[in-house]
Task: inverse folding
């Protein structure tokens, strides 16, 4: 079979960075271009151009590359699942950030910076960004889509110093949408939390190492579900033989308290109305009551493994790859207090990132900070603490799930491309987890 | 509109100084799908970054569509005017003589066509199949050629071409209910690496990592392979020697100039002129000549690395360390090729009892300010009597990158180019290792 599709993007990003009370950078970046993808037999050809008037030539080049590869290195033919015919209406921006003056934006950032600094906080940084992109999609099968997406938000960092001890606290809020994202959060309160975090970390001790009952906050549990479970459920990874949940559809992979979803239709940071293959977005239940229900698919992987397409995303003008959107552990029935009740162990908060080996099913995440927990009460703060374990064992050991689902925004890297995503979870209790520490 | 005209347009729009950074790249990439070559890309892209000074502040804009070049110039001037004057700004660089560098351009890479790239990628993948149970989960080969032009209103007029080839293979080995994974890669500015061997090296590592044992938590000598050592030091040591972080109060080394920060006998150099180095270039990304900068001399911190802006703020000369990943970013302080000079030896052979770590998972979670980290090890081995013996199932190492510098107990002869580092296997004394989950 021969096939092509083509995307045209036109957009801009405005960034403002304040560093130690001064503007560090104001920049505007414009991105335009087209990306053409072609399939010939079992081979994909791809090319991108900066000048959208050259898209016609790009399609011809992509087809030529695919044919050449197919001739030199023939592989079994690849099929593509059809695009479901669902009518979509994209989220409409409430406050166009371009209508807000640079001065007003700088005023907001200055207020955030003031709430961060002073006392032992010696260094601060506030970054604002807004981005807009307009997308046009069409394929040789006659499918078409057109939509636009705004993403707006800020991040802030406070660095506190006491003698040689230097610690950092961070907060951010980003969402899909325009300037209305600042009505969804309280930036000044978030800045205060970043400041408090840095100051608390100054007093924090080194963590103990070993096995503990661990309560993860929504941010860290969200990173766990994204990194350890979400990536293993990406069908391209499954087909490469690099997923620890390959061949487990319909089987129990975790505690019955665990339900995991990926939902690009939610207006969170990973929102999109259509994916980069022109497929209208729809939610996927990956795990329901501990049973693996579905993988995340592109058109190619859906044709091979079943399931619906709609999770093929591209970073800018790069090629579409199976990706997550807004991925979360769904609410359980316990309140936050009930999750903590009677627990002796460690409470881990926030994420400084992590990494996962999807094939062996091993993950490592670093928490921003933690507390030793005695009988459900927070005791001394600890820092530079990480958790590392086996993905399936950890899913099985989830013993309590709260009802306080909360999302965090981030960028996910895969195949050298970054795309915006949100991760979410309520507070969860994991029994017998491995915590890395030096004390 | 020519680049020179863009500089002039900026001055007419009210800029007092202006710089245009142009880059153009051609890339051919071939990747695997389900273990076999199945994806190919050939793209050419170019764009400009415009940096201006107006009302004594910097503004920046970038664009990739030639029809919007002038719009970007006006946006940069608008950004600068919105900021308010910056008292530390000393202006854009002035013209200076560049030293010539070698080994950064290879016509064979620049001329490499799709067919050759497909053949190379296919050979890399075939090499991994030394064992029928090894599957390639990802393989990639790419060749790229780029051109860079920097023009500014002070007369800087820099032009260069360079090339790079990159190969990567990730494998999984499943045998008798056991799973192991491994990867290997090579990157070179010239076509002097044998990319076809990458697959076999990754497969060998996966094979030797099978049938792993658990070890108990303890404190012992740890041998960090080049990848593991550079992963730990990249986010911590390279963060701390960056003058921007020093000036903004985020570097623990800020007040350590002239003081011992590592074991004696250790010298660390950022060498922008290193033949064939991944970060080598005659000029940095704002047109300042690159140089050899001794950052640590015999264990003592001698200097940080600077670009024009941070140098102006510190009242000294730039060390030629302005870098930008793409034309979309304004230049920031960054290293070129950081290498170590110290006595080298057979660090594995000299180790009686320890652990060898090939690579780590989660290095970017290290705390850049304090240097504290706690990471999971990959492809690690027990070292007994100077020999790597049994593979280790799962292991975490914890510590502090800056303390590690003071506990370096030997460096190997196996220097490898990894990102901004050229580093060998490094032995660190008395590291805390924690038994993993399995």
Result:
């Amino acid at each position: 079979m021969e096939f092509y599709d083509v995307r045209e993007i036109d957009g801009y990003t405005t960034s403002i960075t304040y560093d130690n009370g001064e503007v560090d950078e104001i920049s505007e970046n414009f991105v335009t271009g087209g990306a053409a993808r072609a399939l010939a037999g079992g081979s994909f050809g791809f090319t991108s151009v900066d000048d959208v008037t050259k898209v016609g030539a790009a399609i011809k080049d992509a087809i030529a590359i695919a044919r050449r590869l197919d001739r030199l290195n023939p592989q079994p033919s690849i099929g593509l699942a059809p695009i479901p015919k669902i009518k979509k209406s994209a989220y409409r921006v409430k406050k166009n950030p371009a209508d807000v003056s640079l001065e007003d934006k700088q005023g907001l950032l200055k207020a955030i910076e003031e709430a961060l600094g002073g006392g032992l906080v010696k260094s601060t940084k506030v970054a604002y960004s807004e981005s807009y992109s307009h997308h046009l999609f069409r394929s040789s099968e006659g499918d078409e889509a057109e939509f636009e997406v705004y993403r707006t938000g800020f991040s802030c960092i406070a660095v506190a110093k006491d003698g040689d001890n230097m610690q950092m606290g961070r907060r951010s809020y980003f969402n899909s949408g325009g300037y209305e994202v600042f009505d969804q959060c309280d930036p000044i309160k978030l800045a205060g939390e970043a400041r408090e975090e840095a100051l608390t970390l100054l007093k924090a001790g080194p963590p103990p190492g070993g096995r503990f009952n661990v309560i993860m906050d929504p941010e860290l549990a969200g990173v766990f579900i994204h990194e350890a479970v979400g990536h293993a459920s990406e069908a391209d990874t499954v087909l490469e033989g690099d997923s620890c949940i390959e061949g487990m559809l319909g089987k129990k992979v975790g505690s019955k308290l665990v339900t995991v979803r990926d939902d690009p239709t939610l207006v969170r940071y990973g929102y999109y109305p259509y994916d980069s293959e022109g497929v209208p977005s729809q939610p996927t239940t990956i795990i329901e009551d501990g049973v693996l229900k579905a993988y995340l698919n592109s058109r190619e992987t859906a044709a091979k493994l079943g399931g619906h397409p709609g999770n093929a995303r591209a970073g800018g003008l790069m090629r579409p790859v199976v990706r997550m959107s807004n991925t979360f552990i769904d609410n359980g029935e316990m309140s936050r207090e009930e999750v903590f009740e009677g627990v002796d162990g460690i409470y881990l908060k926030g994420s400084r990132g992590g990494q996962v080996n999807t094939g062996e099913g091993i993950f490592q995440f670093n928490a921003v900070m933690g507390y030793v927990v005695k009988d459900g009460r927070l005791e001394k703060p600890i820092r530079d603490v990480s958790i590392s374990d086996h993905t399936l064992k950890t899913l099985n050991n989830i013993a309590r799930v709260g009802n306080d689902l909360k999302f965090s925004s981030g960028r996910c890297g895969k195949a050298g491309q970054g795309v915006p995503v949100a991760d979410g979870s309520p507070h969860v209790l994991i029994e017998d987890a491995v915590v890395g520490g030096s004390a | 509109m020519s680049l020179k005209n863009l500089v002039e347009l900026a001055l007419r729009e009210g800029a007092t100084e202006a710089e245009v950074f142009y880059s153009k790249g051609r890339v051919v990439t071939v990747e695997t799908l389900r273990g076999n070559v199945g994806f190919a890309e050939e793209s050419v892209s170019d764009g400009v970054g415009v940096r201006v000074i107006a009302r004594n502040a910097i503004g920046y804009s970038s664009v990739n569509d030639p029809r919007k070049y002038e719009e970007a110039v006006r946006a940069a001037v608008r950004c600068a005017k919105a900021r308010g004057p910056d008292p530390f700004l000393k202006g854009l660089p002035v013209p200076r003589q560049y030293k010539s560098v070698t080994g950064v351009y290879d016509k064979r890479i620049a001329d490499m066509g799709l067919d050759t790239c497909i053949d190379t990628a296919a050979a890399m993948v075939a090499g991994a199949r030394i064992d029928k149970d090894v599957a390639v989960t990802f393989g990639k080969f790419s060749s790229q050629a780029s051109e860079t032009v920097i023009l500014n209103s002070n007369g800087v007029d820099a032009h260069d071409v360079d090339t790079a080839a990159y190969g990567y293979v990730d494998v999984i080995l499943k045998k008798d209910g056991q799973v192991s994974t491994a990867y290997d890669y090579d990157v070179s500015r010239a076509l002097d690496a044998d990319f076809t061997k990458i697959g076999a090296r990754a497969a060998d590592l996966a094979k030797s990592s099978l049938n792993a044992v658990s070890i108990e938590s303890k404190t012992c000598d740890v041998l960090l392979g080049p990848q593991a050592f550079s992963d730990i030091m990249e986010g911590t040591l390279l963060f701390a020697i960056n003058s921007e972080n020093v000036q903004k109060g985020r570097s623990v080394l800020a007040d350590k100039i002239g003081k011992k920060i590592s074991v004696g006998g250790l010298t660390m150099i950022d060498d922008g002129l290193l033949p064939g180095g991944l970060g080598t270039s005659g000029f940095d990304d704002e047109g300042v000549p690159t140089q050899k900068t001794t950052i640590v001399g015999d264990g003592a911190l001698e200097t940080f690395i600077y670009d024009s802006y941070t140098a102006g703020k510190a009242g000294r000369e730039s060390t030629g360390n302005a870098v930008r990943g793409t034309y979309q970013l304004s230049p920031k302080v960054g290293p070129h090729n950081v290498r170590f000079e110290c006595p080298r030896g057979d660090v594995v052979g000299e180790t009686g009892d320890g652990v060898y770590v090939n690579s780590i998972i989660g290095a970017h979670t290290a705390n850049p300010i304090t240097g504290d980290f706690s990471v999971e090890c990959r492809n690690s081995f027990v070292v007994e009597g100077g020999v790597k013996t049994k593979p280790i199932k799962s292991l975490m190492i914890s510590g502090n990158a800056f303390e590690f510098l003071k506990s370096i107990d030997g460096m190997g002869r196996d220097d490898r180019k990894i990102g901004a580092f050229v580093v060998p296997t490094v032995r660190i004394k008395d590291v805390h290792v924690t038994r993993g989950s399995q």
User: Anything to note?
Assistant: Residues 272 and 356 of chain A are 25 Å apart (CA to CA). DSSP finds nine helices and 23 strands in chain A. The first strand of chain A starts at residue 2 and ends at 19. Chain A touches chain B through 81 residues (CB under 8 Å).
